[in-house]
Amino acid sequence: MAEHHHLPPEHPDHHHHKGGRKGVYADDVKPGSRGRSRYSYYYGGYGDGGGGGAVRALCFAVLVLLLAVGITLLVLYVVYRPSHPTFAVTSAAVLDLYNATASTNNNAAAAGAAPAALLAASFQFTLVLGNPRGRSAARYDRLEAYVAYHGEALTAPTPMPPLAQDAGTAVATAPVLGAGVGGPPVPVSPDAAAALATDVANAVLPLRVVLLGRVRFVHGPFHRGWHSLYARCDVLLGVRKIGGTGAATGGGGGVPQAPILGDPNCNVDM
């Protein structure tokens, strides 16, 4: 009779790892087996219904939206970034400038009033406003200009009409500042009157031309709000004294043009 050879039965722990830990069987990873819950902890699980993926997708969409908004705002700022208008004085004329204190004080003394220092002044300046914005037009309103000397006004503020300019252009205006020839004098301090007489005698007159108002920038349907405008130029004028009353002028005949010495120092605040 042929002998039958039988393999010895497998020991129950034959497939166990050393240290008593159970090995991984194929049945453990079959769908529906008990082993699924054992490994779902390590691989994210199968029973969350996709909720974690939806949250991640929502966060990614919000992040992309915020990034797009930030890039758009940056581009708009670069294109329409704020920039102040420019201001310049290109020519000047002294129409009238003399000390009217003597004649006025005679009248004041007769009336028993205290003497005062008075100056009669009238100028004409060519003022140039520039719009450096290449994509926005500028609108100016409530403009008025005056001339100051040593911090004191030589002329009363002169109203000016509204101005409009296209993008990247300049507009010039030549207002007469002061009451005109023979106009009423302006009260100043005695120190200012004495300093002005000295400067006229030296044929160099430092003045400040001030322009006040408001400005707004317009680009198509977009209208920015109004901004207050404070522009000023410090200029040196070449003048000469005429007659014996302390009168000064820039030249003889016609409109007395006064040469501007050096480059005016101009600034604009908004």
SSE blueprint:
Elements: H1 35-40, H2 51-79, E1 86-99, H3 101-110, E2 117-130, E3 137-149, E4 152-153, E5 158-160, E6 163-165, E7 170-173, E8 176-178, E9 186-188, H4 190-201, E10 204-219, E11 222-223, E12 227-238, E13 240-242, E14 247-249, E15 265-269
Antiparallel strand pairs: 1-2, 2-7, 2-8, 2-9, 3-4, 3-5, 3-6, 3-10, 10-11, 10-12, 12-15, 13-14
Subcellular location: Membrane
Transmembrane segments: 57-80, 108-129
Protein name: Late embryogenesis abundant protein LEA-2 subgroup domain-containing protein
What would your notes on this structure say?
There is one protein chain. The chain is an alpha+beta fold and 270 residues long. Helices cover 21% and strands 37% of the residues. The chain is built from four helices and 15 strands. The strands form three sheets. Strands 3, 4, 5, 6, 10, 11, 12 and 15 form an eight-stranded antiparallel beta sheet that branches. Strands 1, 2, 7, 8 and 9 form a five-stranded antiparallel beta sheet that branches. A hairpin with a 2-residue loop joins strand 10 (204-219) and strand 11. The longest helix has 29 residues, at 51-79. 23% of the residues are buried.
Tally of individual helices = 4
Distance between the amino and carboxyl termini: 118 Å
Number of strands: 15
Radius of gyration over all CA atoms, rounded: 43 Å
How are helices and strands ordered from N to C?
HHEHEEEEEEEEHEEEEEE
Give the overall silhouette. Answer: elongated
From the helix content, strand content and strand pairing, which structural class follows? Answer: alpha+beta
Largest sheet: 8 strands, antiparallel
Give the overall average pLDDT: 77
Unreliable residue stretches: 108-112, 251-255
Subcellular location: Membrane
GO biological process, one term: defense response to other organism
Main location: membrane
Biased composition (Basic and acidic residues): 1-13
